[in-house]
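FW: tagging you since you asked about this chain on Friday. Here's the raw sequence from the shared folder, copied in full. Didn't touch anything.
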Amino acid sequence: MSTTDGAAEAVADMVRTCGPMVHAVVRRIVRNPADADDVVQDAFVSAYRHWGDFRGESKPCTWLHAIAVRAALRRGKRDARRRSVTRDYAAALPFAQPRLAAAEFDPESREARELREDARARIDEAIADVPEPFRSAIVLKDIADMGVADAARVLGIKPATLKTRVHRGRILLRASLLADRSRKHVPPPAYARAVCMDLLRAKMDSLDRGVDFPVQDGLVCERCRQVFASLDVGADACASLRGTTMPTALRKRIERAIREEAARA
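HL: got it, structure written out here
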């Protein structure tokens, strides 16, 4: 088998195995769907051209995501809105707010089901409202379900930086998802701000690891329970976007582009 044949076979395999998730990720970073499709196609063509440079230091899909996401971020800068990320994050922190959207329900209740369904319906809009660099971090971690190390490798940052961006991105996403929901009065924080932030970090770490956070009534106050439940709603909505299929038209475009590249080789 020639090098060209090997590259074509490898990329064709990635179209099948990685393509749906790459498309789901890029679609949430690049606002315009047509631009997102162009980025995905160009990423596969680039992977074909540079297959000989792949050294196996990461999984092929992680390598492909790195190509696609970095191109998506470059394209996304054209649509970037000027805003104060620090101010937005400070405003989104829920611990000083006297009223919060209710999110802690019996998981089998009608209220819980309606909240999850509403979040899933609005998740794309809410993610689009999260500014970079937080959006790409939560897209990779909570939609693509990448581990911290792989997501950091894709973005070219340290794992600790990735975790910080993901944690802040979830707070911003939560604020966007719940922006239009009615609020109820909740008691003030039961602890000092530092303790609340420690509990929040513990909750975020449990989301990072994909495990349940043990909410103990004697330790976690009503305010924190509502916040933690709303973070779970956001995580569920993100998981609903995990790509399982790639649009047929886009897949055919990619396959045609690879054949054209092979013919020119």
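FW: The domain at 3-79+244-264 is CATH 1.10.1740.10 (Rna Polymerase Sigma Factor; Chain: A).
HL: agreed, and Residues 22 and 65 are 6 Å apart (CA to CA).
FW: great, closing this out.
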